[in-house]
Design goal:
The chain is about 40% helix and about 15% strand. The two termini are about 15 Å apart. Helix 2 crosses helix 3 and helix 5 runs parallel beside helix 6.
């Protein structure tokens, strides 16, 4: 995967009602137990607070040698020297983002169609986030993406695919016969009663899925 670490178990953060300390402790625990990449996602927050949070999270991810990806905000990514940025359909064009962050940083792009995936790859994306596969509270009324579409996108591009959207321990084995390189989880880890065993179990299942596909 070149400049990227494993995408196997990709944590997308959600702050819910946690205090700052609780939020950082969850990320720390997740990183200790098998998370392979962290995406800091914040939608309703001031730029200054996002920056401060990114600095704090990056201290954790750097310590565990895990890439930190910033959701949407190229400025925050550059300000804290994060490993990369992930953008959705409503952000700046992929080619523009790539020109801003340079060739050394990771660029993830959300894709729901073959056309979007192929163009994103052509314009400089390093990996695609495909979903939402299952119902999720993270994004209200998301357009669901079928496993068939997921596989079709994976077959059409030459960059890794990460499945996202409502992925839980109870449905993760759905990806046994898919061409994914990993899964992204949000509430399954952030809201877990016990983060350590939850991450360990998810990591074990993902590794079995990926090894079984080889």
């Amino acid at each position: 995967m070149g400049k990227m670490k494993e995408l196997a178990l990709y944590l997308v953060t959600g702050r819910y009602d946690f205090s700052g300390e609780e939020f950082l402790n969850i990320i720390e625990t997740a990183c200790q137990n098998g998370i392979t990449m962290v995406q800091l996602r914040e939608k309703d927050i001031t730029t200054n607070r996002f920056y401060e949070l990114a600095v704090a999270v990056k201290q954790i991810t750097d310590y565990h040698d895990i890439p930190l990806i910033i959701n949407d905000r190229v400025d925050i990514c550059l300000a804290v020297d994060a490993a990369g940025v992930h953008i959705g359909d409503d952000e700046m064009p992929v080619k523009v983002v790539r020109s801003l962050i340079g060739n050394e940083k990771i660029l993830g792009v959300s894709a729901k169609s073959i056309e979007r995936g192929k163009k994103a790859e052509k314009d400089g994306a390093d990996y695609l986030g495909v979903g939402a596969i299952f119902p999720t509270e993270t994004k209200k009324d998301p357009d669901r993406t079928t496993i068939e579409t997921l596989n079709n996108i994976a077959e059409a591009v030459n960059i890794p695919i990460v499945a996202i959207g409502g992925i839980k321990e109870s449905n993760i084995e759905t990806f046994k016969h898919t061409a994914i390189s990993g899964v992204a989880v949000v509430s399954e880890v952030m809201l877990a009663e016990q983060v350590s065993p939850k991450v360990q179990k998810l990591k074990k299942v993902v590794e079995q899925i990926l090894e079984g596909r080889e």
